[in-house]
Amino acid sequence: VTSDLDLPESAYGVSLWFKTGETYTSLFGVDNDYGVELYMVMGKVCSKLHYLNGTEDAYEVICTPQTTFADNAWHHVVHTTGAFSDGGSGQRLYVDGLLAGAASHTGASYPNSSPIRLGASRVLNTTTFNGMLDDVRFFGAALSSSEVNALFSQPVLYLTFNEASSWTDHSMFANQVGCAGSVCPSSGAGVQGSGLTLNGTQYVTVTANAHLDLSNGAFTLAAWVKPEAPVYSNCIEFYWDGSTCTRYEPQGILGLKSGQTGAYPSLQHVITHPRNAEGSNEHRIRFGMADASGWVGYWESAPVLAENVWNHVVVTFQDGSLKLYVNGTLAGGTDVVFAGKVPTATNWLQVGRSNNIGTLQVDTMFVDKEHETGKSELCVSAGDTELFHAKVENNHDSNGDKFIDPYAFSLGSVTFTDTTKLQVWEDDKDTTCGSEPDKGDDLILSQTYTTDGPNTSHPIDSPYNIYQTEIYFTGAVDGYFFRTYLNDSAPFDGQLDDVRIYREKLDATAVEDLYWAGTTALQLNLDDAPGETSFQDALGQHNATCSGATCPTAGLAGRLNQAVLFRPEQLDRLAISNFG
Hints:
The chain is mostly beta strands. A hairpin with a 5-residue loop joins β7 and β8.
């Protein structure tokens, strides 16, 4: 296809979608020996641009490192040149929303008015395009990364949870999603079809993929959330009467390592209760993230969610500005907490929890009684880490003031992933202390701590007091010490459905469309190809098929994209099964 469009050489952009199985093929080119070109070589997407090096002709070639684009799947490519809004200049190549490469020149030194050709290039002169092209756009200016992502406008993660298990990512990137053993959630009724049912200890993991990295600084997190009433054992702050819970452990909706360096942008559910002990539970949304220098902090909303009811939650972020939408309506946000910040580069996450990191802090060991007359060796460890090792005695008085003195821990804190075991024992032989008892040692105490269970206490960065707990032990040695267990959040307790992540900030209209899509039972766009006999439901639930004497005519120009033509004399009609 040839057009007489005259592209500006100093600054331009081209955006197109392609689908091909050919490893060597042409996408686009200016019909001139010195014009810009897009093509594929060995399954890579490449651009070629000519410029003058003094008086000599020269050129720059950018190619993707990946060789996987000849896979008969749709891919989006943008090539753009000029002066960019971030202060850079030259040429840039994006594929599926990600920057694939950049170089320093434009085509300004080779002005020409030659036509452009789709499906052909001078580089692969005799190799024209074999496949499908769609939504081709040309621009007379350099495109920014946010503009590229707006053109791409596809979720980088899209989980419908309509599968009974072995959940599938319905985004074009087909991210791997899974779980193992007892942490696997069950399937239940969702907003549309099935949803994910979680009991406060379960979650799923989305494995690493470069497209999940949100460090470009613009993103959208969306999910349908159905929170349940809180579990009393998860209380972290009581009213003065000591029995009325005013704040519960936050629950992770999605994220990773929340509260820590290297965290994925994290969405949480927080339950509070009025301090006067009257009224109902208040359900809030909390968002936090880390940047390249470490954990930034949290922003928490007013009460915005309803208990035991589906709520559509969307968080958008760009240029330090955070916005929260609930059920299609703006419900809060901040321009202060994350001003000047962009997320750190993390490319995997979990759904159903936002944190897998816990911290045990121990302090002040008191010995009440030991049974070997000053020869008892007391050991304490957490996981593989030794915390305490000392010969202990009754009535330990280190300075002669006739008061019993505590022993100090050699290490007062240990951070762990997922789970750890705290052990106290009296050492008898073989390895002295270390990470766990040897054969013949006297195990006195063993406690397991997990970031998935309800036995968590006050969250990191909590505005409330963190109280130490006395841990008593009896056996070969009797005594006690103080322990604090820090866990940023517990897994989610309730149901989740239709989780989506975008590498762009959706506007209010797009957010509202997402909300209405979740309450829509059937959506036939009727954009199917000419001659089609099955018409796709955009929600993936109920396709329509021809049921009359003939099929209606598909592929005609419509009000939006395409339309289907029905003629009464042909008795053409569509039927939708299992709908009602």
